[in-house]
Amino acid sequence: MIVDWYAGAARDLPWRRPGTDPWAVLVSEVMLQQTPVRRVEPVWRDWLARWPTPRALAAASPAEVIRAWGKLGYPRRALRLREAAAVITEHHGGDVPRDVAGLEALPGIGTYTARAVACFGHGLRQPVVDTNVRRVLARLVHGRAEALPARAADLVDVAELAPDDHDRAVRFSVAVMELGALVCVAGTPRCGVCPVRDRCAWRLAGSPPHDGPARRVQRFAGTDRQVRGRLLDVLRAAPEPVDASSLAAAWTDAVQRSRCLDSLLVDGLVVQIEDGRFALPD
Fold it and tell me: Which of 29, 90, 104, 274 is catalytic?
């Protein structure tokens, strides 16, 4: 039922279209980590137009990929994606690995991303679990209002819910994720249009309220994440290395600015050259 619902209700996202190769899927999955779809899509298109293969990205400089990453956030992902491209090029002949173990061995690729690429990129039957899927499982299977903490049993739950047919099972993995993103949302789910409302354990139990700790809402304003982004904005826009005074204009709190600059240096996102100025890495 979820697969049939997906056929008519799914968003038209470019990385889901027929013919999208595993590399394009891998790029999308890395970009989508903690980042909304609307921000990812234009950057994803530009990225693949510039680096359509792992080999092309592996040949790019760190500065190029940091600039191309733009304001997606968590820019270390850009460097890790470049490192993964280099491993794919050097050890896999330029082809994205098919198996989960091979994908997990790539720099920056965790269990979720490995399973997503194996399933969505290579068409292999794999349970794929993200926050949206955990929320669907919590309600549909366990009768709870909100997603449970990540656990190994989530993969078993998804595998048991999936259809027997291979192709439908592959579509099920993305379909249940989409159900969580569009219908079985956090807060107030849209139960009236849910394709499995008649078998949802949470709904059948009378939709009991969440009885656990309140979900923490991450703030952004004033955080080190914001400061790091401001400093990188200065360096991305600069045609040559900049001095400390140029970075000082990006954030007035000198202690926080210094701490964030140090962390960017440690992460390899910024380098300090011999004359003391700062730049993106070559």
Answer: 29
